[in-house]
TrEMBL record:
This is Oxidoreductase. The lineage of its organism: Bacteria, Bacillati, Actinomycetota, Actinomycetes, Kitasatosporales. Gene3D superfamilies: NAD(P)-binding Rossmann-like Domain (3.40.50.720). It comes from Streptomyces lasiicapitis. The keyword Oxidoreductase applies. It comes from the Bacteria.
Length: 314
């Protein structure tokens, strides 16, 4: 590990100057997405809060303004569960420069639902929505020297590989398995994107990160939607006992987005047991580095979303 990768004491104070850089952060209204957006803005970046819920997005905008006076932030609506919304968001970007795309938004262990386009919600939001968004914003990223794409996965990806023959969990739906598969899809997407960027001799870095166990509202949303109040309460207690703060959970994402020397297809998480602590290289399942699986998921994702990554060779 080089000196630039010694992360034992890396904190948000170590984020390099971001003045003149522009970032899009999905799911920036709460949790690690909010912290990521706030800390990038604190270091001078112009940050777009890309959120589904307009009220919560605008509340986040006001909070960042109060915590970081003078922050250059704006809210733009983005629903990753609706490809029309993804396209509208990308068209609204206007083709300018884009230094950072943080694919952070996600849903966890929901009851079976479908997106506006008919995809199983966890696969549709966590993977396909971000696949489409990245592809539509790729021309801006390619045109910006030193741009990065950071996709937030989870150590729970270790629980299940994708099933390329049943991406929408139509044969059998198990909420935690579907979540794990969507997080494996995130890592496999980053692997294939990094390979294609290298083939096109692009300096855009595609990397991934995970927060360990961070105390956010992600864990309790699924149980609440299913009417499982006891489980939601148990999740809240667990967050308080073993979860680290959202501020700490955002550090791997911030490191992957800003630290010098971050490698393509790297996976950054908390140092201590991939659970908590300063950012460090994180273990990952071998299936998330499988070239053949990456190509198959890529082809399926293009077919399902209609986003073809025409600007990228490979």
């Amino acid at each position: 590990m080089t000196s630039s990768q010694r992360t034992t004491h890396w904190t948000a104070r170590d984020i390099p100057d971001q003045n003149g850089r522009r970032a899009v952060v999905t799911g920036a209204n709460s949790g690690i997405g909010y912290v990521t957006a706030r800390e990038l803005a604190r270091q001078g970046a112009k940050v777009v809060l890309a959120c589904r819920n307009e009220d919560r997005g605008r509340e986040a905008l006001e909070r960042i303004g109060s915590e970081v006076p003078g922050a250059d932030v704006e809210f733009r609506r983005l629903d990753l569960g609706d490809l029309a919304s993804v396209r509208e968001f990308a068209e609204g970007e206007g083709g300018g420069t884009l230094d950072l795309l943080i694919n952070n938004a996600g849903v966890m262990a929901l009851p079976y639902r479908r997106t506006a386009d008919g995809f199983e919600t966890q696969f549709g939001v966590n993977h396909l929505g971000h696949f489409a968004l990245t592809g539509l914003l790729l021309p801006q990223l390619l045109a910006t020297p030193g741009a990065r794409v950071v996709t937030v996965s989870s150590m729970l990806h270790l629980a299940a590989n994708i099933d390329i023959t049943d991406l929408n969990s139509e044969r059998r739906y198990r909420r935690w398995t579907a979540y794990a598969r969507s997080k494996s899809a995130n890592l496999l997407f980053v692997h294939e994107l990094a390979r294609r960027l290298a083939a096109g001799e692009s300096d855009v870095v595609a990397a991934s990160a995970h927060p360990g166990y961070a105390s956010t509202n992600l864990q309790s949303t699924g149980p609440r939607m299913a009417g499982r109040r006891a489980t939601a309460a148990l999740m809240a207690v667990g967050n308080g006992i073993v979860g680290q703060s959202a501020d700490a959970g955002a550090l791997p994402t911030l490191y992957a987005a800003t630290a010098p020397g971050v490698r393509p297809d790297s996976f950054t998480g908390p140092r201590f047991l991939a659970w908590r602590g300063a950012p460090a290289p994180s273990p990952r399942a071998g299936w998330t580095r499988n070239d053949v699986a990456g190509e198959r998921l890529w082809a399926a994702s293009q077919a399902l979303t209609g986003v073809t990554y025409a600007a990228l060779k490979g």
